[in-house]
């Protein structure tokens, strides 16, 4: 398998142009399977399943758990008519690190996407600034929304324990540079805290999980360390636990949702109505109106989006920014 | 066209004729004008969808319009056709105080939202100067700001979801009542899309608790540089004021002329600063704002402030705010016309940038006064002049261009809150490369692949627009 370790946006662009399909690694917060990563798409298994589906007309074959079989069918249908997977290359942003410009008086920092958040926080803290996320050493990985690289955390846009008080990546990002799936190196935004010049393209990359472009550089607003609010979340104390279930509800449903997850809870933040839990795969926690869930290891259930209009618009965005579907194929389960 | 649209809505909700065409040929950006064929006044989302479908089938351009207070021509019907006015779509549809959110039609005035939920101790935080009339639909289109955005953020941080008639005439919902939902941030494009990505007809907005305690002060400084450096020091000290606004000598002169307000003789700049605090666990909001205001006063003293006046009650507070809110209106006393620019620079470049603004004004012999959101680095130089003198008009236009270009050289933006519209589309090419603009074009095409929904806005060199540009200029004069 080809591995790319580009050290510049130009090299990223070359890698994109030279590949049939690229998985962006080192770029994501932690390996959560909220998407269906390509290596987990067991193509051979799915081929067999698809073939069986044709023969047994949807009935689970002997020895198959009906639930697993149903999930398999969903995936098989999605793959119907698709060719064998393209040759997959891997791109890591490990060599795309470093802080390019930090202006404490303007409260802005320009940082390359492969920089570890922890390294950035150290540099910012020396001048009394920070990115307003809870400290992972005190609040653990779940509540701190990481750990990971700046580009990866922005691309995953996971909830964190200060989002009600300080906002999130979409509120902190002032500008970015990215390499699109079509190979162009593009910029959006600039280095000032208030800007409405043109379409806010950079917002599209926040939470896009690397499926539209590979973020190479980010300009962020920094926050005075002295004014960072105290995280008020309830926390189990399990620092390195990676939750398999993240749920955010309307404030009025928060207590019921929390009660339902009780014994599996890792953290609960009432201010943003967010719950982090390690839920066994066989259990299905209760859902609430307008809530959303990110979960792992639940196959088709991992796909967090069901609104047809949103799926249609997301597919349109994908076809415009990554026309050949090269970047992180399989992302969100339908891209 | 008028008869057919009259059958879709009602004949009395389709306006046409010379007077209507003149009223709707521009918004608050009056330099470029283009007349619509007619104006429709729908009552709800379904009626908007019916109008849009008719426009699509007839190949007629359409442009949504709220209160028409926009400052970059976003509501100007650039290629004529139909103006879709939201002025009768001004109902509040649902209030959910427990979840701090409210659903309203797009034509409701910004301020009415806050008024409707004041009894719950809540308000809608974005407060553009036009808030008593400007609509939530218009605020969403322009991603409007206001003095309090320094702490509370702009419109995009306060919109949860919208109902929109898309460019195929279909009704779609974008966003999520529970924020941060997985998937692409499509709402992030629609807010600030300047009404070119569809017609927003309803919105769920986020409500914010009214601060439990507020302190406001007005400080006077002997030089503009002292004031701008003071702004930087306040932020560096970790205080996040709710608002931090600067006014220079030109604004003070106008306020004195118009309203008899007086300021210390030696004052060259005023800084209005407001701190506030929410009711929190175990913290006394009054104590928090008292401590913060003390910190602000100490910093002002270190930066040679001549005086710092702290409001002791709401009446005094409103009086201090007058120096900010009445500033632009007061400019009318200095000259028949004013043009307000909207540039952004990194905050630390404010002293340097203001020196440049004064140099440009004196070199070109035009009057300038500055009033701006200092905390955000968002500059509003106001040139005052006599628009009956073409030489002065030319000087003002050229001065504006010089200032915007300087903003870009200092790493800033061509607009902080007024938008691109038709006014600044040619300036986008100074800020972005052709590849960057192509990315923006792709973003537009996610929603809008045709040429009928609010044409000729934002992106330069759009098909069918270039030849019209000359026609717009000066039509109304």
Write the layout of secondary structure elements.
The complex is a heterodimer of chains A (335) and B (477).
Chain A: E1 3-4, H1 9-18, E2 21-25, H2 43-56, H3 66-79, E3 88-92, E4 99-103, E5 108-112, H4 117-125, E6 129-130, H5 136-143, H6 150-156, H7 163-166, H8 169-172, E7 173-180, E8 185-189, E9 213-221, E10 223-224, E11 234-235, E12 245-248, H9 254-261, E13 265-269, E14 274-277, E15 292-295, H10 308-321
Parallel strand pairs in A: 1-3, 2-3
Antiparallel strand pairs in A: 4-5, 5-9, 6-10, 7-8, 7-9, 11-13, 12-14, 12-15, 13-14
Helix pairs in contact in A: 2-3
Chain B: H1 2-8, E1 14-16, H2 18-23, E2 38-40, H3 45-58, E3 62-65, E4 82-85, E5 92-96, E6 101-105, H4 110-117, E7 122-123, H5 136-142, H6 149-152, E8 159-165, E9 171-175, H7 186-190, E10 199-206, E11 208-209, E12 213-221, H8 224-236, E13 243-248, H9 249-259, E14 269-277, H10 285-302, E15 307-310, H11 314-325, H12 327-330, E16 337-340, E17 343-344, H13 350-363, E18 367-373, E19 378-379, E20 381-385, H14 390-409, H15 428-431, H16 434-447, H17 469-472
Parallel strand pairs in B: 2-4, 3-4
Antiparallel strand pairs in B: 1-2, 5-6, 6-10, 7-11, 8-9, 8-10, 12-14, 12-15, 13-14, 13-18, 16-20, 17-19, 18-20
Helix pairs in contact in B: 8-10, 8-13, 13-14
What is the CA-atom radius of gyration of chain A, in angstroms? 21 Å
Query: What is the topology, as strand order, of the major beta sheet of chain B?
Result: 15-12-14-13-18-20-16
- Approximate strand percentage of chain B: 15-25%
Overall average residue pLDDT of chain A: 83
- Give the C-alpha Rg of chain B: 23 Å
- Report the biggest beta sheet of chain B as strand number plus sense, adding barrel if it closes: 7 strands, antiparallel
Overall form of chain A: globular
**Spans of chain B with pLDDT under 50 lasting ≥5 residues?**
none
Total helical segments of chain A: 10
Oligomeric form: heterodimer
């Amino acid at each position: 398998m080809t591995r790319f370790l580009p050290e510049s946006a130009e090299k990223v662009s070359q890698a994109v142009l030279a590949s049939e399909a690229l998985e962006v690694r080192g770029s994501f917060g932690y390996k959560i399977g909220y998407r269906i990563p390509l290596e987990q798409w067991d193509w051979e298994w799915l081929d067999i399943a698809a073939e069986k589906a044709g023969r047994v007309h949807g009935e689970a074959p002997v020895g198959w758990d009906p639930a697993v079989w149903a999930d398999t069918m969903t995936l098989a249908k999605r793959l119907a008519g698709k060719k064998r997977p393209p040759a997959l290359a891997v791109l890591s942003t490990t060599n795309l690190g470093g802080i390019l410009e930090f202006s404490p008086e303007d409260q802005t920092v320009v940082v390359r996407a492969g920089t570890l958040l922890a390294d950035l926080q150290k540099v910012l803290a020396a001048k009394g600034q920070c990115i307003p996320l809870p400290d992972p050493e005190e609040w653990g990985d779940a509540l701190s929304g990481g750990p990971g690289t700046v580009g990866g955390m922005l691309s995953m846009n996971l909830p964190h324990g200060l989002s009600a008080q300080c906002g999130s990546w979409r509120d902190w990002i002032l500008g970015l540079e990215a390499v699109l799936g079509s190979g162009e190196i593009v910029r959006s935004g600039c280095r000032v805290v208030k800007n409405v010049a043109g379409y806010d393209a950079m917002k599209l990359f926040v939470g896009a999980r690397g499926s539209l472009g590979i973020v190479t550089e980010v300009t962020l607003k920094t926050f005075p360390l002295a004014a960072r609010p105290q995280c008020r979340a309830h926390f189990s104390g399990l620092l390195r636990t990676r939750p398999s279930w993240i749920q955010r509800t309307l404030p009025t449903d928060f207590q019921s949702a929390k009660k339902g997850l009780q014994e599996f809870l890792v953290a609960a933040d009432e201010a943003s109505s967010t719950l982090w839990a390690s839920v066994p795969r066989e259990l299905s926690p209760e859902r609430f109106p307008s809530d959303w869930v990110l979960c792992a290891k639940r196959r088709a259930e991992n796909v967090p989006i069901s609104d047809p209009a949103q799926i249609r618009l997301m597919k349109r965005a994908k076809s415009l920014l990554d026309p050949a579907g090269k970047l992180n194929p399989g992302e969100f389960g339908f891209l | 066209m008028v008869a057919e649209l009259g059958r879709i809505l009602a004949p009395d909700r389709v306006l046409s004729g010379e007077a209507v065409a003149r009223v709707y040929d521009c918004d608050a950006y009056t330099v470029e004008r283009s007349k619509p064929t007619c104006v429709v006044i729908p009552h709800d989302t379904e009626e908007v969808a019916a109008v849009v479908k008719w426009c699509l089938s007839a190949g007629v351009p359409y442009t949504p319009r709220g209160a028409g207070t926009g400052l970059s021509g976003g509501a100007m019907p650039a290629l004529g056709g139909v103006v879709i006015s939201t002025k009768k779509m001004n109902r509040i549809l649902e209030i959910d105080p427990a979840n701090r959110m409210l659903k309203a039609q797009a034509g409701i005035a910004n301020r009415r939202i806050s008024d409707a939920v004041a009894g719950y101790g809540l308000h809608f935080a974005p407060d553009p100067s036009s808030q008593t009339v400007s609509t939530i639909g218009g605020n969403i289109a322009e991603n409007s700001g206001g003095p309090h955005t320094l702490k509370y953020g702009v419109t995009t941080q306060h919109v949860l979801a919208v109902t929109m008639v898309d460019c195929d005439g279909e009704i779609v919902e974008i966003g999520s009542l529970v924020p941060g939902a997985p998937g692409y941030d499509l709402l992030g494009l629609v807010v600030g899309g300047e009404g070119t990505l569809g017609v927003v007809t309803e919105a769920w907005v986020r409500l914010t608790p009214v601060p439990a305690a507020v302190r406001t002060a007005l400080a006077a400084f002997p030089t503009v540089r002292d004031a701008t450096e003071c702004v930087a020091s306040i932020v560096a000290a970790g205080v996040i004021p709710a608002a931090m606004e600067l006014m220079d000598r030109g604004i003070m002169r106008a306020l004195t002329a118009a309203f008899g307000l007086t300021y210390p003789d030696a004052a060259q700049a005023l800084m209005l600063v407001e701190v506030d605090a929410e009711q929190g666990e175990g913290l006394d909001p009054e104590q928090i704002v008292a401590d913060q205001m003390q910190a602000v006063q100490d910093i002002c003293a270190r930066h040679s402030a001549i005086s710092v006046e702290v409001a002791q009650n709401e009446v005094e507070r409103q009086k201090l705010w007058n120096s900010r809110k009445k500033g632009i209106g007061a400019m009318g006393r200095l000259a028949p016309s004013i043009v307000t620019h909207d540039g952004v620079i990194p905050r630390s470049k404010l002293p340097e940038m203001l020196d440049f603004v004064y140099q440009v004004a004196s070199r070109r012999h035009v009057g300038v006064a500055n009033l701006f959101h200092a905390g955000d680095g968002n500059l509003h130089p106001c040139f005052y002049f006599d628009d009956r003198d073409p030489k002065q008009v030319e000087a003002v236009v050229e001065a504006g261009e010089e200032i915007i270009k300087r903003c870009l050289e200092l790493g800033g933006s061509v607009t902080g809150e007024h938008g691109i519209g038709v006014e600044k589309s040619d300036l986008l090419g100074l800020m972005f490369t052709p590849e960057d603009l192509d990315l923006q074009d792709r973003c537009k095409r996610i929603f809008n692949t045709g040429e009928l929904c609010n044409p000729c806005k934002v992106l330069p060199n759009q098909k069918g627009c270039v030849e019209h540009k000359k026609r717009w200029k000066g039509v109304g004069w």
